[in-house]
Structure formats: structure tokens, C-alpha cells
Amino acid sequence: MKTLSEIIKINLPKISLIDVGAMKTNESDRYESLFKSNLIEVIGFEANPSEYIKLKNKKNEKYLNYCLGDGTEKTLYVTNYPGCTSLYEPNPDIINLFTGIGTDDGNFTVIEKRKIKTHKLKEIKEINKVDVVKIDTQGSELDILKNFEKKIKKVLIIESEVEFVELYKDQPLFFDMQNFLSKNGFVLHKLIDIGGRPFRPWTVNNNPAIPISQLLWADAIFVRDFSKLDKFSDEDLLKISLFLHEIYNSYDLCYYFLKEYDQRNKLKLSEIYRKYINSEKKLNLKFMNLRLSVDTVTTKK
User: DSSP assignment of 270-290, as one string?
Assistant: First the structure.
């Protein structure tokens, strides 16, 4: 799949992204194509010192060892698996119901309780304009965004991990996040990377990571309300189109925004884009917890 700039052959604006909970996994960098094209600038935050030291400041990347929150001192619950570390205490009443995770001898086992000063996102001096927020802090995502509320209406996309049950004691859940973002002008676009586990003692093919029925978490993608195009500048339309194409494979919504850009500027970029997508023999789609390679979809004007 070509990049958007290769398809429509115009200079695209650079996206400013903040990555809250920036610990690296074994996965390849999601934003590799944007870094190669010099079309993204990332400021990342990682509260866990042992994970922060693994991050490297490079061109268009800056990482800070800040714990974001409401500005007060909190307890950081450091867990056996660093990715489960949280400002919220793991909830054994829920976690221990499921195969493959646990608070006694599993990923959610607390190995250290550390007092830590939190910082309000709106007060971080290194941040100027923000186009995309990607946030994964194991339960405290909504607390962090509430302390960015006055600036959040200028953001184009918010990607947040959400939980459907209280894996952490008294944590906000998916519906709390959706209600907050809806009130601030965002629409749920899609859920990706949905995860679950079987209730104990069940497993599927001896793999405890495969759920049978219960959803536990997902990454929720919220976009600024696409029914109110007057709220988007020309630059916004290009930035959101770029990110939707490169990162989320949201070809239809990308086309929608490009078409609005064309109408304002008397261009035909959306038609060029539509013809290219139709010409692809296979499309990689990212929807729910699926990664699909499908035969070409067809479109009509």
C-alpha cells in the first residue's frame, strides 16, 4: 500500500502526536511510514523509570519520565508485567476470575508501591499543538484527559485503551470515556486490539490468551465529529486523512475528509484516492480485533 502522499502527490502537513504510556513492545513502530516521510513529531510520556530508560530520543521523538494525572501525589502500583503498572490498584475480585492473568502470580502481581508526583497534561511546557493523543495508562486515561479538557477540542484523534470491567479498583470504564469525549465533540470511530480471557478454569487450545466470551479491554479510536466539517480547517482535513490512511486503514473515512478538502479548494484528490484504493487487489483492514486482508472493495461516486 502506498503512502497517502505518494497517492495524491501533494505536500502534507506534519502531525503532532503525544504518546502517554510510551513503553516499547516487541512490535515494530506503528508510525514508521510517517517517520520515514518526516510527517510526524512525537512527545512521549512514561512513568515507569525502568521502561523510560529503554526509550531513546531521536529525530522527531522526545520522551519524558513524567507520570500524568491530576497534579497530586499518587501511588504507582508497579506490577510483574510492566504493561499492567497503574495509578489504580489491580482488582483481584475481577482479575482472578480469568485464566492467564492473576494478582498473586501473574502479570498483575504488584511488586512495588511507589509514591509519585503526577503532572497535569495541560501544564506540560514541551507541548504546543496536539493533533493526535495516544494514551494507554491502565485505567487513568480519563483522569489525564480531564486535565486537558480546555485544549481537547482542537485534537483530531484520540486513541485510548479502555476497559469494560474493573480490572483496577474504582477505575473509569469504557462508557465513562465515551461520555466524556462525546460531550467534547468526539465520535467513536472503531475498536481495535480487543482483548479478553476465558473464565477459570477454561482455556482454548491450551492458550489462555484466547477468550471464549468475555471482553476485557480494547483500544478505542475516537475522531472529532465528522458530521461537523465546518469545525475542521483545511490543514485539519489533510492531517486526519493522513493518519486514518497510514495508521488505521480507514480508507472510507479518509476519502470522506479528502472530498471535503477538494470541495473547498476545487481539487480532485479524493477521486485520485478512490481510484487507487479500488485498484488495489488486496486491502489490509483493521477493525475490531481483526486484521484482515480482503479482496478489493468497490465504490461508486
Answer: HHHHHHHHHH-SEEEEEEBTE
